[in-house]
Amino acid sequence: MTSTLFVPQFGVRVTTHDVTATQAIVSVTGLAQNASAGSVDTRARITLLNAKGRSIAQQTTIVQAVPAGATADFRLDFTVAKPDLWSPSSPNRYTAKVELLDASRVLDAETVLFGVRNISMTGQKGLLVNGQPMKLRGANLHTDLGGLGGAAIPEAELRRLRIVKAAGFNAIRTSHNPQSATFLDACDQLGLLVIAELYDVWSEHKRADDYAPLFDSTWQHDVKRVIDRDANRPSIIMWSTENELGIRSRSPLQDVYGKPLADYLQQLDPTRPVTQGSAMGHALGLRLPDDSPEWSYLGVASLHYLKQTDDGFEHIHDAHPDEPLYIGETWGSQLYDFTKTVNDNGWVIGEFAWTGMDYLGEAGIGLPQSLPTGTQSGGSFGAKYPVFNSYCGDIDLIGQPKPQLAWRKVVWGDSQLEVGVERPTPAGYEQSIALWSYYDELPSWTWNVPAKQAMRVRAYTPGDRVVLKLNNVVVGEVALTEADKMVATFSVPYAPGTLVATAYKGRQAIASQRLTTVGAPARLKFDVEEGRLGQDVGSLAHILVSVVDATGHDVPDAVVKVNFALTGPATLAAVSSANPHNVDSFRQPHRYTYHGKALAIVRSIAGNGVVQLTASADGLRSVAVNL
């Protein structure tokens, strides 16, 4: 901005109305701010451009007498024929370009991206996206980027959200604070639906150093800044005012802040409903009375860890038939039950796994426990040092799938068969899971165990029968009923070779999967996920290193120390693995692999030359790549 008349930051708001496949109304509201000492007149020109950058509509309006030191608003409405709608499968976006003119001279210009879409949520029809029914396959995501920490970097945010969407998720809950603009840019681009959450605390502490002392004096300012920044985003479908603040003995905070927050959000943005994380108090076994005020001011209800087998489930919809509901957090150990609750009830619009990816903190809540046979785990909350990450995600800290994701893909209908082999435990012990944890298993038939040791194999399938063969000999057959929740479990005496699982529906084979014993670690292999390092200073490249055998097959459980060396105008931003116990610094140029893999993140710096990354390990052939 060089003119005294300009469009202020977040001074353009785009809303869409009456959206159909044949046309949509696009309303663009702008602000003109006058920093001069006198009143001025101007013209505002608004141009709509499609995804290819081609102008599809343009209008101009007079903005008269913008007062000195103040702002004036203006609005223009456009009818867009046959709009390219934004949706999870087709995240089409338009650009609104707003220019302030003095005669023919452009004084200032601002552009915003937006999407044309129609989102509705009701207790009768559930969630409709552009008129089509959809369920939220959601992931809770914290803000950190693993080894990069709390930074918000475009390539890293885009990478993790691509991984999340490729895993089958279509929605994100930003647990439990506003995410960066960079993160939300990626959601808009990729077509992820977002519940944008504002607070993990209000005025009552959860931790001594949290936001609570500032809340009373700043919440209105902070909420307005968030809405002003993010209201144009097609990805955001709801605003959430908090996380689990009403579950603590029916905290009076709900009565003090719940309605004012919801009312203020609706005032700032009447186009989206307001929700709260576990507002209805299901967590910890609490229930919300039918006459509680939350039912009147929230557009969408949320209950954490809710299943249709819970006492009182049916009463919720009977008492509040117009209110849609989503399950804001779910346990990986019971994911079948949560998904069935969503699928069986039209008014339950979705579920959000806790969590989509592992994150730093809440150490070890997802770790299985090795306990005496027959002992039930009570969960691993508060695991001892050196555990440092949550380990409760469907995806690990470096972006690799974890065992519960295999089950989820089958339950969601994205796969007909997945196979995992449980890591063996000492005699007299077994793996035990609860709540956020899941079994430590790998899609591998390469194990350093004595011959004939019993190995527990799980086959996940919607089929009604699974046949398991080891080296062409049938070693098990399991008939599945609904009570098995799409999991067939086998005990197989270990012998190297090839394990083949075949799933059937009736007499028809619907899928087959094989696991073959691989050779010893022989060399390292690189996978440069972005293809190359961008030329802009600060660009990132993520390079996955894998331990492979002489024929190039991954060695799934290899643990080797990998040393990284870098030449050229770049630096190692982070080196990490998914190991929840490895507290080595992310800034050191080496890492022990976990499940045979580690991740190096390279950042470009100023200078000319070729950037080359080399990885080496004792006894293995090294690998190098020019980035």
TrEMBL record:
Residue stretches making up the Glycoside hydrolase family domain: 524-625
Please state every residue range assigned to the domain named Glycoside hydrolase family 2 catalytic.
125-278
Q: Recorded GO terms, molecular function?
A: hydrolase activity, hydrolyzing O-glycosyl compounds
Gene3D superfamilies, per the entry: Glycosidases, Immunoglobulins
Could you state one GO biological process linked to this protein? Answer: carbohydrate metabolic process
Instruction: Indicate whether Heme appears among the record's keywords.
Output: no
Chain ranges of the Glycoside hydrolase family 2 immunoglobulin-like beta-sandwich domain = 12-117
Q: Which UniProt keywords apply?
A: Glycosidase, Hydrolase
Query: Can you give the residue ranges of the DUF4982 domain?
Result: 453-510
Which interval of the chain is the signal sequence?
none
The record ties this protein, via Pfam families, to: DUF4982, Glyco_hydro2_C5, Glyco_hydro_2, Glyco_hydro_2_C
Q: Say which family it is in.
A: Belongs to the glycosyl hydrolase 2 family.
This chain belongs to which protein, by name?
A: Beta-galactosidase
